[in-house]
Amino acid sequence: MNPHVILRVVAKFLIPLIVMFAFYVQFHGDYGPGGGFQAGVILAAAVILYALIFGLDAAKKAVPPAIVRIGMSLGVLFYGGTGVVTWLLGANYLEYGVLASDPADGQHYGILAVELGVLFSVASVMVAIFYAFGSRQPDLSDEDW
Amino acid sequence: MIPSVLILDITLMAMLVVVAVSIVRMRSLFAIVMLQGVYSLVSAAWFVSLDAVDVAFTEAAVGAGVSTILMLSAMLLADRQSKPLEMHRQVGPLLVVIVTGIALFYAIPDMPAFGDANSPANSYVGMDYIDRTTDEIHIPNVVTAVLASYRGFDTFGEVVVVFAAGLGVMLLLGLNGNAGKWRARPNGISVCSHALPSAQAARGESVASLANKRKTEKAAVEAAKDAGGQS
Amino acid sequence: MDLLSFFPEWVLTHGAALLVVLPLLLGAALAVVPSENAAWAISLIVAILCSLIAFALCVQTFGGESLTYAMGGWDPPHGIAYVIDSLSAPVLFLISLMAVLCLLYALPSVRAEVEPKKRAPFYAAFLTCLAGLLGMVTTGDAFNVFVFLEVSSISTYVLVGMGASRDRRALNASFNYLILGSIGATFFVVGLGFLYMETGTLNMADMARILRDLDGGSRVAQVAFAFIIIGLGLKLAMFPLHVWLPGAYAHSPSFVTAFLASTATKAALYLLLRFTFTVYDFEFNYVNSSVMFLLVGFGIAGMVFASLQAIFQTDARRTLAFSSVAQVGYMLLGIGLGTAAGAAAGYLHLINHAVIKGALFICLGAMWYRFGITRIADFRGLSKTMPWTMGAFTISALSLIGVPFTAGFVSKYKLAAAVAGEGWWWAVGVIVVSSILAIIYMGNILKEAYFREPPIVNGEVVARNEAPLMMLIPMWALALASISIGLNSDVIVATANNAAELLFPLADALPGGIFQ
C-alpha cells in the first residue's frame, strides 16, 4: 500500500480549492486585497503541490513545460497588448478610459485585462523556476562541467 | 497607557530581529530556508498591523509560500551546510552595515511620525489618489487602482522583471534540466596557448580569491612559456 | 525640421513610449519564436526602429525644448511621465545605435558562442535588456527608473551567465554581478523611499521643485542622496565599487560584452547626472561637498589605480574592462567639477567612450571567433593574420589613449580644459598620467600583434583568416566614427553643450557658450 495515500487524498481535495482561491483573489482584487501577483503565486502553488505529491513527471504531463514557456510571454504580451489596444483607439499608452463609453468603466475593464496578464506571467514563471530546479540532477558529475 | 497596537508592533519587530540574527548565525541551509519562511510570515503579520493588507498578502504568498519551496529545491542541488566564513572576509560587510545603520539613524530625527496625516507622503499625491479613485475608476480598492492604472506602467515593468527572471532560469538551467553541456567553439582554428582552467579551479574561485586566481593565471602563462620553450 | 517630415505624426507623438514598449513586447514574443534567424532579424528591425525614433527625438529636442508623455493619460505627478530632453535624447540614440551595430556583429558571434536552441530566447533577453536601458533613460519618474533598472539588470545577469558555454567562469562572474547589483538596487530604492518620505511624490521634476522649496530638505533628503549615489555608483562601476565589472566583461559572450561596455554603465552615468543636477541641486551644501569630494576623489582614484591594474592583466578583455573603470573616472571627474564645462566634458566622454569601447570589444570578439584567443600572449602576429580587425582595433586603441584627430582626444582635451578652467592643475596632471598608463596597457596588446610573428600550429605558420564581413562592418563603422569625431567634433560638442545647458541653466548667460 502506498505510504502517501493520505497525502494524496488530501491533496486531491485541496488542489481544486487552491485553484478556486487563486481565481477568487484574482477577480476580487478590485474590491479587496489581492490581484494578479498574489493570484499567480497561489495558482503556481497548486501546480507545485501537485508536483510534490504526485511527482514531477505527472505535473509535467498536466502542465507541460511548453505551455509554461508560452504563458510567460503571453502574460507580458497581454499586459502590453492592452496598451497597444488603447493606442489603436487613439489614446495614450495604457489609457484604459477609451475601452468603454464611460471612461471610469473603461478603467475597470483595463485593470481586469492587465491583472490577467500579471496572473499568466507570474504563475508561469513560478512554475518554470520550480521545473528548472526540480528537473536538475542533484549531483553534477565532473564531465558536466 | 500604551496602545495595544504599539505593543503588538514592538513584539513583531523583536521577533523579526531574533529570526534575522538566528538566520545569520545558522550554518544548516535547510534551517535557514525554513527560518526565512518564518521571517516572511512574521513580517506579513506586521504589515497587517500597519494596515498594509495588500503588501501583507503578497509577502505571505510569495515570501512565506512559494519562495520557501523554490529555495528548498535550489538547496537540493547545492550543499546542505554553508561553509564558515574566514574572519577577514566578515570585516568588510560589517563595516558597510555599520555605516548604513549610522546613516539611517542620522535620518530618523527628521522623519515624520508614523501615520502622521500631514506628512508629505500622506498628504500630497497619496491623498489625491484616495479622493480621485472613486470618481475616475469604478473600483473600491485604491491600491489596485494605483498599481494597475495610475502607475500601470510600473506594474508592466514589474511583470517584465518576473518574465526576465523566468527567461533567465530557462536559458541557464533549461526547464527539463538538460542545459549546459554545449561548448562554444571558435569558427577558425584555435591558437590558444593554454587550456581553460580545470573544472575544480573554476568552481573554487570566489570573489575574494582574485589574487589567488591571478597567481594560477601567471603560473599557467609560465607553464605555457616553458612548454613553448621545450618544443 | 525637414528631417522630421519623414516620420509619421503618430510616431512623433508617442515616440517616448514606443521606444520602450517596442523592444519589451517583441522581446516577450521572441521567447517563443522557434527560429534563431527570425529572432535575430526581428531584434535587428526593432533596434533599427528604436534608433530611428531616438534620432527623431534628438532632432526634436536639439533646440533645448523637452517633450513629456503621460503614461496611461494621467498627468504627472499622479501618473508616470516620460520626459525627453537634450540630456536624455542623445543617450537614447547612442544606446539604440549601439544595439544595431552589436546585433549585426551578433549573427556570426552568437552562432559560435550560444547553444542553438537557446539563441532565440537569448535575443529575447537582449531585447529586454535594451528596453530596460532605454526605459531608465526615458522616464521622468524616479520609481519607474528603479523598475527599468531591474529589468535591464536581471536580463544582464542572464546574458553574462550565457558566457558559460565558452568559459565556465561566466557563471561566477554573473553571480558576483547579481549579488552586487542587487545590493546597489537596494541602496537605490531605499534612497527613493526616503525621497518619497521627504517630498510625497515620485515625479522627478516635482521632487526637484519641492526640494528647492525646502532649500535642500532635511536629513532624510541628505541620507536619500547618499543612498542613491552609492546605488548608482555600484551600477556605473565607480572605482571602489567596480569589482563586479572585470569578471562580467571578461567572461560573458563577446556580443554581450560589446553591448554592455558601450551602454550599461552609460545609462547609469546618465542617471547620476539626472539625480545630482536635476532632482537635487548643486546649490545644496551637502550635494556640493559630497560631489566635489566623493565623485572627484573616486574618479581620480579610478583613473590611476584601475589603469595600473589594467597594465598587469594577462587577459585582453580584463585589460579593457579595467580601462573602462578608469574611463568612468574621467566622466566622474568632469561631473564632479560642478561646472557646465565639466558636465559637458563628462557627457562628451560618455558618448566617445561608448564608441571606442564598443569597437575594441567587437574586435576582441572577432579575434576569439577566428582563433579562440583572449590572452594578450596569444595575440602575436595578429596584424598579419587579421589585418583589418587589427586596423580597427589600432584606431580605437589610439582613440582610447587620446591621440590627436581621434574622438578620445576631443573629450580628454575638453575635460582638461574644463579642469584647468577651475584652476585644478593637479587634475590635469592626473589626466596625463592616466593617459600614459593607457599607452602602456594598450601598447602591450599592440606590441604583441605588430612586432611578433604569427604562432605555429601543427608545423605551419597560422594563415591569414580575416573576420567575417558582418563583424568588420560594425567595428569599422565605430572606428571611422572615432576618427570623424576627432576631425570634426562640432555636432557632438554642440550636443554635449546642450545637455550641460539643461543642467546648468546659468551657462546661457556666459559669453561665448560653455567651451570657449
Structure description:
The complex is a heterotrimer of chains A (145), B (231) and C (516). With 145 residues, chain A is an all-alpha fold. Chain A has helices spanning 5-28, 36-54, 56-62, 65-88, 103-135. Chain A has one domain (5-138). Helices cover 74% and strands 0% of the residues of chain A. In chain A, helix 1 runs antiparallel to helix 2. The longest helix of chain A has 33 residues, at 103-135. Chain B has ten helices and no strands. The relative contact order of chain B is 0.04. The longest helix of chain B is centred in the N-terminal third of the chain and has 23 residues, at 53-75. Chain B is 69% helix and 0% strand. In chain B, helix 1 (4-25) packs antiparallel against helix 2. Chain C has helices spanning 9-30, 36-61, 88-113, 119-138, 142-161, 169-199, 204-213, 219-235, 244-251, 254-279, 285-311, 316-336, 340-371, 382-385, 387-401, 407-421, 425-451, 469-487, 490-503, and strands at residues 67-70, 81-84, 456-457, 460-461. In chain C, the strands form two sheets. Chain C has a two-stranded antiparallel ribbon with strand order 1-2. A two-stranded antiparallel ribbon of chain C has the order 3-4. In chain C, helix 1 (9-30) packs antiparallel against helix 4 (119-138), helix 3 (88-113) packs antiparallel against helix 10 and helix 5 runs antiparallel to helix 6 (169-199). The radius of gyration of chain C is 22 Å and the shape is globular. Chains A and B meet through helix 2, helix 4 and helix 5 of A and helix 3, helix 7, helix 8 and helix 9 of B.
List keywords for this structure.
heterotrimer, A: 145 residues, mainly alpha, elongated, disordered C terminus, B: 231 residues, Four Helix Bundle (Hemerythrin (Met), subunit A), 10 helices, extended
Mind sketching the topology for me?
The complex is a heterotrimer of chains A (145), B (231) and C (516).
Chain A: H1 5-28, H2 36-54, H3 56-62, H4 65-88, H5 103-135
Helix pairs in contact in A: 1-2, 2-3, 2-5, 4-5
Chain B: H1 4-25, H2 29-49, H3 53-75, H4 87-107, H5 120-123, H6 125-136, H7 142-150, H8 152-172, H9 199-204, H10 210-230
Chain C: H1 9-30, H2 36-61, E1 67-70, E2 81-84, H3 88-113, H4 119-138, H5 142-161, H6 169-199, H7 204-213, H8 219-235, H9 244-251, H10 254-279, H11 285-311, H12 316-336, H13 340-371, H14 382-385, H15 387-401, H16 407-421, H17 425-451, E3 456-457, E4 460-461, H18 469-487, H19 490-503
Antiparallel strand pairs in C: 1-2, 3-4
